[in-house]
Amino acid sequence: MNHVVAGVLRGRLAEAGKLTFAEFMETVLYHPTEGYYNRPEMTIGEGGDFYTSPMVHPIFGACIARQIHQMWVVMGRPTPFFLLEMGAGVGTLAVDLLQTAERGDAGFFAALEYAIVEQGAQLREQQQARARERGVAGKMTWYETLDEVPGQGERVGVILSNELFDALPVHRLGKTEDGFVEYYTVADGDGFAEQAGPLSDPRLPEWVDAKTLAQLPAGERFTVCPAADEVIRAMGRLLAHGFVLTIDYGDRSPEVHVQHKRADGVRAYYKQKQAQPYERVGLQDLTADVDFSLLVQSGAESGLQEVGFTTQMKLLGGNGFLHKVQELRSKRFDLMADAEMYRMLNLFLPQSLGEVFKVLIQAKGVEIDGLAERLHALTFSLEE
Ligand SMILES: C[S@@+](CC[C@H](N)C(=O)[O-])C[C@H]1O[C@@H](n2cnc3c(N)ncnc32)[C@H](O)[C@@H]1O
């Protein structure tokens, strides 16, 4: 247990009696200096509690660079082209993407302005150090929040995130014969426990679509993420013309809310293994499956139209992934090449990360008729 975080939670519980799970999650993950993401020792990948796709292999950033390059072309090669990544972790995707762009189309690289919105000061420092090491820091700027980014409503480009939305605080709800309950966090000796009670805000179920709510059997649990609603609206407000490219695990409604069979998709990770949310408070990661239907609905209210919903396999497959696999396969009896190829394939294969991770593409101020047929991520098929 992180004693500072636990102390803050106990203090708040002594006053309020109970906290919503979203309040608990916000504190354990994002306390400014001791929250899970903001501790000095925070890292992702080797030595951390979980891996994300950019950490598996640089091909991930390279394929995304290619997809974004195509978006730039579709938009008529605007200059400057603003590429904003929100929630960039240790900065691996940003540097891989920029280095791929630098080796590619000179016009595209010259047009690119890369911004990171990252809540954590310590992570921003890690990102800046990595960007300097890899020689791309000159292309980049950093912000703590989306609202702080200058040029609101005027930006032309792409807003990108990988595993941002699954790290946003969620409320935990349940459906009963008589309506809904919320699962709160309460004190339990030296630790914390769950307690059911009435909803903290009667509007919470409205963030899940009505058909899904009607379909859920009594006894089913689900999560609601008002923070995701806020973030996607803020992304829409920032753009004049462009795309929002979201990669995350989860699904649309109703699938995302029914697939857990009486659990709700909240997961804790410690040293690459799943754990319980109330264990090792502040020292382990907490995530929740993303409801992509919420991103589509709330995004539409800030002008973002859905262009397509697909999988990481198709995003990568459509953007050069298999050429790299082919290159490695042709190095016969090269054990290093084999090992690298198997590592890469984890990102792509459906039984590995390829279908667990979903990709949502939304657009604003871009003609969307026929657009889905022009974007590599949405046209890829294994049959070809
Ligand atoms: C699960 S990590 C993913 C990191 C990285 N994208 C990757 O794939 O390795 C979530 C990231 O989102 C950041 N984050 C969470 N909420 C945020 C917010 N409201 N604004 C900016 N960054 C946020 C966290 O600090 C962290 O960098």
TrEMBL record:
Database matches in Gene3D superfamilies: 3.40.50.12710
GO biological process terms, semicolon-separated: methylation
Record keywords: Methyltransferase, Transferase
Entries under InterPro entries matching the protein: NDUFAF7 (IPR003788), NDUFAF7_sf (IPR038375), SAM-dependent_MTases_sf (IPR029063)
GO MF, one example: protein-arginine omega-N symmetric methyltransferase activity
Protein name per the record: SAM-dependent MidA family methyltransferase
